Amino acid sequence: MHHAVYQSAIIYIEDRLDTSLPRKQAVERLRKAANKGAYSCPECHRLLRVRDGERGLFFAHNPGEACELQESNATYSHQTKREAQHHSVLREMIHEVLKNQEKIRPSLSVEFGYIAKAGQKWSHLPDIVMSHKGVETAISVLTNVDRMKDQKLVKKLRERNAYFKNKGLDTLWFIDVQEQVIDEKTRAIYLWESELDLSSKTPQDEAWDKLLLDLSEDTNQLFSVMSYLSPSPFLPSIDTRSLFYIHSMSESIEFSVHRFIADQKIAPFQAFAVNEGYRMNISTALSLQENLALHHEEQEAKEHEHFRALYEKRLQMWKAEQEFLQAAAQAAAEAETIARAEAHARYEAELQVIYEKARNEQIAYGTSKPMSYNGLKELLKVHLKMTQPEQMLLWTTYVGRQGLINFDRLWELAQQVTSFSAFEELLRKEPRHTKR
Ligand SMILES: [Zn+2]
Q1: Domain of life, per the record (predicted)?
Q2: Digit-coded pLDDT (tens) for 176-211
Q3: Is 119 a domain residue?
Q4: Which pLDDT score is estimated for 244?
């Protein structure tokens, strides 16, 4: 194990090495101090020795004295084997900042997970267990994250997260990753599958929910105004969640908080970026009041203000666009009505011309000679709106077969009716004509 009690405080073995000495000498000095009884087990309080071998530098019980911490440590070591080398550095920094607050907050207790849960045979262990006012939180640091691959890790983390929750602990994850990139224009972010599980719901997220609902209760409008394109057929409800990323600096670490509304819950995991994400230093992020701060108050207020201003500015543009689209649609509908009316009027005028011409011909013929079939046809086209098939029917059935060849008589009949079918009824009753 890498921790021991030294002068009633828990120390990390690497921190006890005198860095002004060559490593070998520093280790030797540490070993001597251990042999004099400087370091004891946090669990059974027996004295520990210093061992340095293939597995690195660690504390060990004397042969035959191993306690339950040994087992817990084995589980934890196995679990953290996949982590990057700086994982332990991040863990120690977070532990130190939290631990320092124990002095001013008697309700707070902070312990490394494998020590806090030694003897309880847990199959997963958080890096740190923080207990405050009776609420336990499992704090875990995650390094070596490859967003694209690592389906196995996704499964393992889901299991681990559920395990802690089952044990009655709140969970808090700090993810050591590259900067999360959001598309400023469309506010879309893409999450790694596990991030949906590892996100938190903090009081600040609830404040964001309140702000968003205040701006618009309609998610559809909210997304539309913010130019966010949802890939899902069903829009999510307003439920802001947060993710905490960890960034290693040269001497310290910084945290950043990203807030989002999970949208597409199958790959690719798209979300609506509620904030742009901002950084804060470790003491701000981990300062404890009612809860761990995990936010920077001024930054948070600034982001609220920024979002509200952006929404209102875009809302003006959005409304103008909606109005423009509506006006355009109305203008198009009006134009179509006018075009239809004009076409109809042209059609009526054309009919009128044909009708006049046919009537004049008929009058002219009427006085001198009998009406021609052609003259009748033109008149019927106008008067009964006779179609080409009807014209063929008239020609073959009634003129040809029935012998109705007096076209002046047929025009007389046609003038008594207003449809071709009514005209046919009269034709069927009409006896064969003997002459034109
Ligand atoms: Zn022990």
Answers
A1: Bacteria
A2: 876 666 777 788 888 888 888 899 999 999 999 999
A3: yes
A4: 94
Cα 243 from Cα 303, distance rounded (Å): 16
Looking at the fold, whether 243 and 195 belong to one and the same domain comes out as yes
Task: Tell me the per-residue pLDDT of 239-266, one tens digit each, with 9 for 90 and over.
Answer: 999 999 999 887 888 999 999 999 887 7
Q: What is the mean pLDDT of the chain?
A: 90
| Assigned domain for 352 exists | no
Task: Choose one of 66, 92, 112: the last residue of a domain.
Answer: 66
Instruction: Measure 66 CA to ligand 1 centroid, in angstroms.
Output: 6
Query: Do residue 35 and residue 97 come from a single domain?
Result: no
What mean pLDDT comes out for the span 91-100?
Answer: 95
Q: If we measure between CA atoms, which residue out of 55, 53, 57, 56 comes closest to residue 34?
A: 57
- 46 Cα–ligand 1 center, Å: 6
When mean pLDDT is compared across 75-79, 105-109, 141-145, the lowest value belongs to: 141-145
Span 384-416, pLDDT tens digits: 999 999 999 999 999 999 999 999 899 999 989
Say how many Å lie between the CA of residue 58 and the centre of ligand 1: 13
**Ligand 1: centre distance to CA 48 (Å):** 8
| Domain that includes residue 40, residue range | 1-66
- Residues 382 and 250 placed together within one structural domain of the fold: no
Locus of tokens 């009027």: 345
CA distance 431 to 416: 17
Distance 117 CA to ligand 1 centre (A): 13
Q: Which residues of 90-103 are buried (b: 16+ CB within 10 A; e: fewer)?
A: bbbbbbebbbebee
Q: If you measure from the C-alpha of residue 115 to the centroid of ligand 1, how many angstroms do you get, rounded to a whole number?
A: 10
Same domain, 213 and 271: yes
- How many independent structural domains does the chain possess? 3
- Residue 3 Cα, ligand 1 centroid: separation in angstroms? 11
Ligand 1 centroid–CA 70 distance in Å is 7
Among candidate residues 258, 289, 305, the one where a domain is terminated? 305
| DSSP character string of 23-36 | HHHHHHHHHHHHHT
Residue 60 above 90 pLDDT?
A: yes
Same domain, 19 and 147: no
Same domain membership, residue 274 and residue 140 = yes
Looking at the fold, whether 170 and 22 belong to one and the same domain comes out as no
Same domain, 142 and 12: no
